[in-house]
Write a structure and sequence with these properties.
about 375 residues, alpha/beta, Aspartate Aminotransferase, domain 2, Aspartate Aminotransferase, domain 1, 2 domains, 7-stranded mixed β-sheet, two-stranded antiparallel sheet, 11 strands, about 10% strand, globular
């Protein structure tokens, strides 16, 4: 059994993907080919009319977003310590200082009141992470930063396709960023990402920074980088996008079914009021993670841990001065959560087998 069956996802759109790749090989425009612009348009339409800028990865999307907002040395950016390192490393890469705020114990997303407590005169942005597939409490965060020179940068790497109170992930804050890493809900066949904004001027600046600082070849108006998405990856995503709308529904149905089958034996994902959940990972909180993982492994069922160590516990961020116990909800989640196999084409028989094994374990 695969933890994420990427081959099954590929088979759903195989003919369209192969035709799209063949088209790129035929025209030979491997950088900034027509598929890049077609996908940007399609993603913008998917989100209801935002500007969309493709990037070479989700990490690059976050870094370019911060650079475009003018965030750098002397600035502070608040984010969660319970996430993949990209969210915080990009803060350091632009010269700013990461400031961590604890999570909500139920949703695992950043706690707005912890954000409030972390704000200082140096705070220039907040990066909430939509962890595991549902959006953070953006209304509360927006209220906290209202009338302050603080940007909200939505980290939507795990939530593309999710919604909160009718607003789609990718349309919140000053700017939003997502990832198309292969294991993400909508994944390409390498690295890829995107930035979204409704601000035309900011979109132009983002697009320039992605492409060595210029919108016109040979003219460099900003200090830019090479953050472009390859045409082949854009073509693959363009071919997969029509099926993705169906896959969102399949994800939600399978997530609901997991929770129905496991809800009386372990702690299943809590969905915040007004949210939809696309289950980038289906994550439970058993009594004994290590033993449950071993019990499942013995039956040929893989599991994964997102994330085993909080960011403030990582060696690279030790100079920030945080200690064990600084973020108790994040640290408890890092010790306890376990993700089960999940993908949109998982059969009910596979899901039943997994749930039976979880329920029969003494450690769920």
């Amino acid at each position: 059994m695969e933890f994420i069956d990427l081959k099954a996802i590929h088979r759903r759109s195989e003919e369209a993907i192969e035709a799209a790749m063949a088209g790129v090989l035929e025209h030979g425009r491997f950088i900034n080919g027509p598929e890049v612009h077609e996908l940007e348009t399609a993603l913008g339409e998917f989100l209801g009319g935002t500007h969309s800028i493709l990037t070479s990865s989700g990490t690059m999307a976050l870094e370019i977003a911060l650079r475009a907002l003018g965030i750098g040395p002397g600035d502070e950016v608040i984010t969660t310590p319970f996430t993949w390192i990209s969210t915080a490393e990009v803060i350091g890469l632009v010269g700013a200082t990461p400031v961590f705020a604890d999570i909500d114990a139920e949703t695992y997303n950043i706690d707005p009141e912890a954000v409030r407590a972390a704000i200082t005169p140096k705070t220039k942005a907040v990066i909430p992470v939509n962890l595991f597939g549902q959006m953070a409490d953006y209304e509360a965060i927006e209220e906290i930063v209202a009338n302050k020179p603080i940007h909200i940068v939505e980290d939507a790497a795990q939530s593309f396709g999710a919604e909160r109170k009718g607003h789609k992930s990718g349309t919140t804050g000053t700017v939003s960023c997502t990832s198309f890493f292969p294991a993400k809900p909508l994944g390409c066949y390498g690295d890829g990402g995107a930035i979204f904004t409704r601000d035309k001027g900011l979109a132009d600046r983002l697009r320039a920074i992605v492409n060595h600082g210029g919108l016109v070849r040979g003219d460099h108006d900003h200090l830019g980088t090479n953050g472009r998405c390859d045409t082949l990856q854009a073509a693959i995503l363009l071919a997969k996008l029509p099926a993705y709308k169906e896959e969102i529904g399949l994800r939600q149905e399978l997530g609901r079914r997991y929770s129905e089958l496991l809800g009386d034996c372990c702690r299943t994902p809590a969905i915040a009021a007004g949210n939809t959940h696309i289950y980038a990972q289906y994550t439970i909180r058993p009594n004994d993670r290590g033993q449950l993982a071993k019990d499942l492994r013995d039956q040929g069922i893989p599991t994964a841990v997102y994330y085993r160590n909080c960011l403030h516990q990582q060696k690279v961020f030790q100079p920030l001065g945080y200690r064990e116990g600084s973020f108790p909800h994040s640290e408890a989640a890092a010790r306890e959560v376990l993700s089960l196999p999940f993908h949109p084409y998982m059969s009910h028989e596979q899901q039943d087998r997994i749930c039976k094994a979880v329920r029969e374990s003494k450690h769920a």
